[in-house]
């Protein structure tokens, strides 16, 4: 903005304070100075469309209240707030109560924030901000939050961002809308610093990982009780797994079929603990031929242990107990799990 115009604006505003003292014109500023960091990608020229949403929470960075709006409702000068701190930087709130004509503000209130005291920042500095500007609606006990969804890049060449068309004067000055109560109105800003993430969580799917076949032989099958039995844990990828079954059946397969399930257990030391993809061929092995009973199962296993996925009828009990078929030999059965694909998660640079 032109410095000469600013100087004239300051003189005019000073004159306004002197001549309108009898009208009890008061500008009250409230600064809370809380900044919040957030991670996002950004596009300087993105135009995602301005959104306006009412919310109950006050702006977290700055509030300026004008008691005596009627005094300045026709004025075109810029009002600059006092310096306030938010997210570790210094700022001012800039208001055109009758619109910034150089930014399409005819018929609107225009509102901006400007970085201040940037001399100590390093050469080539830039600060990326998720900016929201506000208009208080006392009638609804809420604040109208205005944003366009684009991250604002503040630099030495561009220290000022905002909205030329914050709210239309027709809406703002309509008594039924509730923005002006007892000739008083308030505006605010919320400045959230956007720091691009330096690391990312990368999920990789590994086909046929090392040591991916686990065999479990169960002896004295006929003596087993009506309960679940579990294999030893085995490690594939970043996670331990185990097999489990009930010799008397489970769910809809009970008591006519034999179940088998794969359970996800704990994680190896230093693993990134997340959901784990597990794709497995579950087999009841034929001990006399290659005619195995096999089921393919794939699922996201949650972080918690003992989550099982499988089938409750890998073989009918009558076929299992028919010793001529080769699945139950010398009162023993053999299960096998072939982990064909698992996920591994790492934290890596972006």
From TrEMBL:
<dbReference type="InterPro" id="IPR002083">
    <property type="entry name" value="MATH/TRAF_dom"/>
</dbReference>
<protein>
    <recommendedName>
        <fullName>MATH domain-containing protein</fullName>
    </recommendedName>
</protein>
<feature type="signal peptide">
    <location>
        <begin position="1"/>
        <end position="23"/>
    </location>
</feature>
<dbReference type="Pfam" id="PF22486">
    <property type="entry name" value="MATH_2"/>
</dbReference>
<keyword id="KW-0732">Signal</keyword>
<dbReference type="InterPro" id="IPR008974">
    <property type="entry name" value="TRAF-like"/>
</dbReference>
<feature type="domain" description="MATH">
    <location>
        <begin position="59"/>
        <end position="191"/>
    </location>
</feature>
<feature type="domain" description="MATH">
    <location>
        <begin position="211"/>
        <end position="339"/>
    </location>
</feature>
């Amino acid at each position: 903005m032109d410095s000469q115009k600013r100087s004239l604006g300051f003189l005019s505003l000073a004159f306004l304070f002197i001549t309108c003292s009898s009208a009890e014109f008061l500008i009250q500023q409230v600064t809370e100075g809380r900044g919040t960091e957030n991670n996002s990608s950004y596009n300087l020229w993105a135009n995602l469309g301005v959104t306006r949403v009412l919310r109950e929470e006050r702006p977290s960075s700055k509030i300026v209240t004008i008691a005596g709006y009627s005094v300045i409702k026709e004025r075109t000068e810029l009002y600059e707030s006092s310096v306030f701190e938010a997210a570790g930087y210094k700022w001012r709130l800039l208001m055109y109560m009758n619109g910034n004509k150089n930014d399409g503000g005819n018929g609107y209130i225009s509102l901006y924030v400007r970085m201040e005291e940037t001399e100590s920042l390093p050469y080539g500095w830039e600060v990326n901000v998720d900016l929201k500007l506000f208009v208080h609606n006392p009638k609804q006990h809420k604040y109208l939050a205005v944003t366009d969804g684009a991250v604002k890049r503040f630099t030495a060449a561009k220290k000022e961002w905002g909205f030329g068309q914050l709210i239309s004067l027709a809406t703002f000055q309509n008594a039924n809308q509730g923005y002006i109560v007892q000739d008083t109105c308030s505006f605010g800003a919320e400045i959230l610093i956007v720091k691009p993430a330096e690391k990312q969580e990368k999920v990789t799917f590994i086909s046929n990982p090392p040591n991916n076949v686990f065999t479990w032989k169960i002896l004295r099958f006929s003596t087993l009780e009506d309960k679940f039995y579990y294999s030893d844990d085995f490690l594939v990828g970043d996670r331990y797994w185990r097999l489990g079954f009930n010799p008397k059946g489970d769910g809809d397969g009970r008591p006519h079929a034999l179940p088998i399930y794969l359970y996800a257990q704990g994680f190896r030391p230093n693993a990134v603990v997340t959901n784990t993809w597990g794709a497995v061929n579950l087999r009841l092995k034929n001990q006399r031929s290659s005619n195995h009973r096999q089921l393919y199962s794939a699922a996201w296993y949650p972080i918690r242990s003992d989550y099982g996925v499988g089938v409750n009828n890998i073989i009918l009990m009558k076929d299992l107990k028919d010793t001529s078929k080769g699945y139950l030999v010398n009162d023993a059965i053999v299960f096998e799990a072939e982990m064909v694909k698992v996920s591994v998660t790492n934290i890596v640079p972006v």
